TrEMBL record:
Pfam families: HTH_3 (PF01381). Residues 14-72 form the HTH cro/C1-type domain. One of its GO terms (molecular function) is DNA binding. The lineage of its organism: Bacteria, Pseudomonadati, Pseudomonadota, Gammaproteobacteria, Lysobacterales. It comes from Arenimonas caeni. It comes from the Bacteria. This is DNA-binding protein.
Length: 124
């Protein structure tokens, strides 16, 4: 399978986030302050990979979708979900999650113990 380009990943993540929010292209463009007609065309062009997005528009789009800009640029569904979850956490929770992630990378067995401990013993 060929590698996906950053533009195609962005387009897929945008369409997914928009649909999860229950927004049409027109409604999302309007939320961005572009107006319904111009906004609809712009979002459509982003999703079809006809037009590249600039940083200012990326920020406005992310704000309209209530996701961090990095979510729209994540290169995998797991990374996107991790970004979304991390962004929804308090600063204290983010610090704890970051430390847990470091530990999990350094010692994968520690992650398995943490997950096993969180889910408890399996019923017999």
């Amino acid at each position: 399978m060929p590698e996906r380009s950053a533009r195609s990943l962005f387009a897929a993540r945008l369409a997914e986030a928009r649909q999860l929010r229950g927004l049409s292209q027109r409604a999302l463009g309007d939320r961005m302050g572009l107006g319904k007609d111009k906004g609809s065309v712009r979002i459509n062009r982003y999703e079809r990979q006809v037009t590249a997005i600039g940083f200012e528009s990326l920020d406005a789009l992310a704000q309209a979708l209530d996701v961090p800009p990095a979510y729209l640029l994540a290169d995998s569904p797991g990374m996107a979900e991790a970004i979304r979850l991390l962004a929804s956490a308090s600063p204290q929770q983010q610090a704890l999650m970051l430390e847990a992630l470091r530990l999990a990378i350094q010692d994968p067995e520690a992650l398995a113990r943490l997950v096993d401990g969180a889910t408890g013993p399996s019923p017999t």
